[in-house]
Amino acid sequence: MNILDTLALFAIMLTLAAIPSTSVALVVTRSATSGLWHGTAVAVGIVLGDLIFALLAILGLTALSEIMGTLFLLIRYAAGIYLIWFGINLIKSRNQTIQLKRSPSTGGLVASFLTGLLVTLGDVKAIFFYASLFPTFLELSTLSYAEIAQVFGVIIVTVGGVKLTYAVLAKKVAKIALPFSIAKQAKVASGSLMIGSGTYLIVRS
Questions:
Q1: Residue extents of the structural domains in the chain
Q2: What are phi and psi of 53, to 5 degrees?
Q3: 3-state SS of the chain?
């Protein structure tokens, strides 16, 4: 994965992580009601869940590329179509908002961590997202451990960084629910990036 691919993946993951979602609401709520460490624990759980999905997607795609050979081309087309569909739906949902519900946290930091992890793992469609996105940036037939480490690094920095930022700013964010104008811009930007990535994947295939 070259520097341009890394930067493109970074931009996509950053904008997606910034979009108000169930995970963002969870981080903000836990941090605002139980303290920064609880919000941080939730963020760590979310990042670990994303890393698990990313690893499963990479392993699955690598195995398929070796077994199916040229038939894997069909999967690349399907992945491109999925990304375009995902991007269009993101743009269409730009006016939807996530409402924060204040509720006292139960349990300690481990409970907060597990909540973040389970909420992420409960979103099974995330693995389809990663499985669709990675063929755009990774050459699966020659995938190296260094490239996997790059992908993991991007996920940790973007998803972890954004969720931690929400945790730190939780009390301010909670007062205004969520920054809706930024959310709209992030959804349009992310949707456009998804459509572009899907189109590029189809053309390159």
A1: 3-204
A2: -65, -40
A3: CCHHHHHHHHHHHHHHHHCCCHHHHHHHHHHHHHCHHHHHHHHHHHHHHHHHHHHHHHHHHHHHHHHHHHHHHHHHHHHHHHHHHHHHHHHHHHHCCCCCCCCCCCCCHHHHHHHHHHHHHCCCHHHHHHHHHHHHHCCHHHCCHHHHHHHHHHHHHHHHHHHHHHHHCHHHHHHCCCCHHHHHHHHHHHHHHHHHHHHHHHHHC
Report d(CA 6, CA 131) in Å as an integer.
16
Could you tell me the pTM of the whole model? 0.80
Closest listed residue to residue 23, CA positions, set 127, 143, 112, 153 = 112
pLDDT tens per residue across span 92-141: 876 665 555 554 455 688 988 998 898 888 887 788 888 888 888 888 77
Quote the CA–CA distance of 88 and 109 in Å, as a whole number.
Answer: 37
